[in-house]
Amino acid sequence: MSVQVIKQGDKPEWAVVPYKIYLELVEKAEMLQDVQDYDSAKAALERGDDELVPSEVVYAILDGENPIKVWREYRRMSQPETAEKAGISVPYLSQLETNKRKGSLDVLSAIAKVLQVSLDNIVTSQP
User: Fold this and answer.
1) Rounded-to-integer distance, Cα 91 and Cα 68, Å
2) How far from 87 is each of 49, 71, 92, 108, 115, CA to CA, in Å?
3) Which pairs with CB-CB distance under 8 Å and at least 24 residues apart come from 109-116?
4) Taking all residues of the chain, what is their mean pLDDT, rounded to a whole number?
5) Where are the domains of the chain?
6) Mean per-residue pLDDT for 67-86?
7) Which pLDDT does position 50 carry in this prediction?
């Protein structure tokens, strides 16, 4: 490999490599990052810090279904059970799930905690 080393005094300061080698180095660095990301995700799954989300859940939310309802059904929880654990009424939960009502930050946070998801996973940007 032909590398030109540029020194500042006695210390190497820059290394100039042919562009083809530079591209190879960038590709290898990206591959290393992918491997590290995979290892990190796998470790989080093994520790129980993360979970794999089935495609049905993802597609239901992407298709416009209410995320609270989708996650509640995925967790196999009833409306009464979810409402009780979140400290709200069943009608209130039903109104949230049908987008007839918007929840406060406290209510949505409580629901997210009950459903074991982040707040981002249940907040929609729909009107």
Assistant:
1) 14
2) 25, 17, 10, 11, 13
3) 110/86, 111/68, 111/82, 111/86, 113/86, 114/77, 114/82, 114/85, 114/86, 115/68, 115/71, 115/72, 115/75, 115/77, 115/82, 116/75
4) 93
5) 4-47, 55-121
6) 97
7) 85
Beta carbons of 86 and 107 less than 8 angstroms apart: yes
Q: Domain 55-121: which topology?
A: 434 Repressor (Amino-terminal Domain) (1.10.260)
Report the alpha-carbon distance of residue 114 to residue 96 in Å, rounded.
Answer: 15
Phi-psi region of 9 (alpha: psi -120 to 50; beta: other; left: phi over 0): left
| Banded pLDDT at 125 (limits 50, 70, 90) | low
Tokens of 109: 């946070």
CA–CA distance, 74 with 69 (Å, rounded to integer): 8
pTM above 0.70, yes or no: no
Name the nearest CA neighbour of 120 among 71, 47, 49. Answer: 71
